[in-house]
């Protein structure tokens, strides 16, 4: 018997054993007519203020904020890249702070103000950060761009509030608007097209310092 034959036999045996064991609960279930019903997911009302508009949703408690925005409110500007907190494509602003919406449950944000890319600005009335991304060519395919722009708006808010980053040399001084600071603060937003330099230029322009971002 070859190794291949042995594998075939043992695989067949495994399948038979698996089929037999799988049928046991089915048979025993048939003999006990009152089997316990499958648990249904809990739904709960959630109030959010999305882009300035109060919204009441009834959601499975396991619904991420990202899915609440995309699947329930049809705000598809917010992108699902990895769904694991690794790419930043799903970044939105919650009560003014940037957050990966795939990593948080909607029910955790009862009453919160959520701003998505649609709420920042619209064609004809762009947010300054959106306009700067366009001017500086801060994107190619555009998939990461809504998250990049929401994150960039959040970054400038953090700098304004004096929140230091990993590369801030003086934790007590107002953070610099250097390219190094911006790159560090934007490092959670991945761009597979590699538009990073132009993104830094766009953010720097909006921040009003050192156009070109070559600090
Ligand atoms: Fe949320 Fe990638 S989709 S971090
Ligand atoms: Fe394509 Fe960033 S513009 S991934």
TrEMBL record:
<keyword id="KW-0001">2Fe-2S</keyword>
<dbReference type="Pfam" id="PF01799">
    <property type="entry name" value="Fer2_2"/>
</dbReference>
<dbReference type="InterPro" id="IPR036010">
    <property type="entry name" value="2Fe-2S_ferredoxin-like_sf"/>
</dbReference>
<keyword id="KW-0479">Metal-binding</keyword>
<dbReference type="Pfam" id="PF00111">
    <property type="entry name" value="Fer2"/>
</dbReference>
<dbReference type="GO" id="GO:0051537">
    <property type="term" value="F:2 iron, 2 sulfur cluster binding"/>
</dbReference>
<protein>
    <submittedName>
        <fullName>Xanthine dehydrogenase YagT iron-sulfur-binding subunit</fullName>
    </submittedName>
</protein>
<keyword id="KW-0411">Iron-sulfur</keyword>
<dbReference type="InterPro" id="IPR036884">
    <property type="entry name" value="2Fe-2S-bd_dom_sf"/>
</dbReference>
<keyword id="KW-0560">Oxidoreductase</keyword>
<dbReference type="InterPro" id="IPR001041">
    <property type="entry name" value="2Fe-2S_ferredoxin-type"/>
</dbReference>
<dbReference type="InterPro" id="IPR052914">
    <property type="entry name" value="Aldehyde_Oxdr_Iron-Sulfur"/>
</dbReference>
<dbReference type="GO" id="GO:0016903">
    <property type="term" value="F:oxidoreductase activity, acting on the aldehyde or oxo group of donors"/>
</dbReference>
<keyword id="KW-0408">Iron</keyword>
<dbReference type="GO" id="GO:0042597">
    <property type="term" value="C:periplasmic space"/>
</dbReference>
<feature type="signal peptide">
    <location>
        <begin position="1"/>
        <end position="35"/>
    </location>
</feature>
<dbReference type="InterPro" id="IPR012675">
    <property type="entry name" value="Beta-grasp_dom_sf"/>
</dbReference>
<keyword id="KW-0732">Signal</keyword>
<feature type="domain" description="2Fe-2S ferredoxin-type">
    <location>
        <begin position="44"/>
        <end position="120"/>
    </location>
</feature>
<dbReference type="InterPro" id="IPR006311">
    <property type="entry name" value="TAT_signal"/>
</dbReference>
<dbReference type="InterPro" id="IPR002888">
    <property type="entry name" value="2Fe-2S-bd"/>
</dbReference>
<dbReference type="GO" id="GO:0046872">
    <property type="term" value="F:metal ion binding"/>
</dbReference>
<dbReference type="InterPro" id="IPR006058">
    <property type="entry name" value="2Fe2S_fd_BS"/>
</dbReference>
